[in-house]
Write a structure and sequence with these properties.
Blueprint (H helix, E strand, L loop, with lengths): L7 E5 L2 E5 L1 H8 L11 H6 L3 H6 L8 H11 L6 H13 L4 H19 L10 H6 L3 H6 L2 H13 L2 H12 L19 H7 L1
């Protein structure tokens, strides 16, 4: 890490390699401008329609719930209860709205499960689920900056750096332990792996 904010430098095969928002933007093609403050007016417009309609208004939704909700939009479970559910949703949605809702739920799943690599056991951001209902706002949001911040913070976490330094400091001895050290990188570390 350098004194510059949110930038890392590495020595790879004798050459310096930088990982910063610039490289992240070029590698992902995501919009990487400053993250805006959502105004009170905008936040008042954000509703929990998707959560209320497809997730029974639950306050805690996980990635598996998104998958289940997405599948229920296609009414995979036929039978009497499936038909009743389909009629109920048709009444609650305008013509074509369910198709658009499928896209919205898929966008949140892609954001949470791929770009943010969020822990599948943690709750989906209610903010993201609400924001996606306004596709213009969702698509204009600088997701690249949000994803980069999470990736950088995950890669530069003190625990991860400390574990690595500790491992380098230990003399190489035969390790008898069968327990392997693991850690979870959040954000989109795949681009980091490819670029370095």
């Amino acid at each position: 890490m350098t004194s510059k904010k949110k930038e890392m430098w590495f020595l790879v095969e004798g050459k310096q390699a930088r990982f910063s928002l610039t490289e992240f933007a070029m590698g992902t093609g995501l919009h990487c401008s400053a993250i805006p403050k959502i105004s009170t007016e905008q936040s008042l417009r954000l509703k929990n329609r998707l959560r209320d309609l497809y997730f029974e208004g639950r306050s805690q939704i996980k990635q598996d719930d998104l998958v289940h909700g997405f599948r229920s939009m296609f009414n995979e479970g036929e039978g009497d209860s499936g038909k009743k559910e389909k009629r109920k949703k048709k009444k609650a949605t305008k013509r074509g709205q369910e198709r658009e809702d499928r896209v919205k739920v898929a966008l949140v799943y892609f954001l949470e499960g791929v770009l943010l690599s969020a822990d599948a056991k943690k709750n989906i951001s209610d903010f993201y689920l609400s924001m996606v209902d306004d596709l213009a706002m969702f698509n204009a949001y600088p997701w690249g900056s949000e994803v980069y911040d999470m990736t950088f913070d995950s890669l530069s976490s003190k625990n991860l750096v400390a574990k690595y330094k500790e491992k380098l400091a230990k003399p190489k001895e035969k390790q008898v332990s069968v327990v392997k050290e693991t850690y979870t990188l959040l954000g989109f570390p795949f681009l980091f792996q490819v670029s370095c």
